[in-house]
Amino acid sequence: MSDSPETPASGRIPLVQGSDGHAYIPADRVVNLLRAIASAHRNLADDPDCDLHTAAAAIGQEADALSVNVMLHTER
Questions:
Q1: Residue 40: enclosing H or E segment and its boundaries?
Q2: C-alpha closest to that of 9 among 72, 76, 65
Q3: What does each C-alpha distance from 19 to 16, 55, 74 come to in angstroms?
Q4: What pLDDT tens digit does each residue of the chain (76 aa) get?
Q5: What is the distance between the terminal CA atoms of the chain, rounded to a whole angstrom?
Q6: CA atoms within 13 A on the CB side of 7
Q7: CA 24 to CA 71: how far, in whole Å?
Q8: What pLDDT does residue 73 have?
Q9: What sign for the dihedral angle of Cα 24, 21, 6, 44?
Q10: What confidence tens digit (pLDDT) does each residue in 33-45 have?
């Protein structure tokens, strides 16, 4: 077991800085992200002990982490 915190999944999404200084996610990565979210929801739907509020909170945390990553990759 490692003492270092796990990198959020959103931290592993490659960002590309556009000529306008903003961070972008390549379209193929967005498609993969949406497919992963759909797959996770299908798996959760089959789990009788699943709480969708918990799943939504996890997605919200990933969105927050991605937002921070975008800010770090955006030119000021």
A1: helix 27-45
A2: 65
A3: 10, 36, 11
A4: 456 566 667 778 888 889 998 889 899 988 888 888 888 888 888 888 877 888 888 888 888 988 988 888 787 6
A5: 38
A6: 7
A7: 11
A8: 79
A9: negative
A10: 888 888 888 888 8
Query: In this structure, what DSSP letter does residue 73 have?
Result: T
Which residues are 46's β-sheet partners? none
Tokens representing 45 are 């739907």
Which of 5, 4, 10 lies closest to 72, judged by CA? 10
CA separation, residue 65 to residues 42, 46, 76 (Å): 23, 27, 19
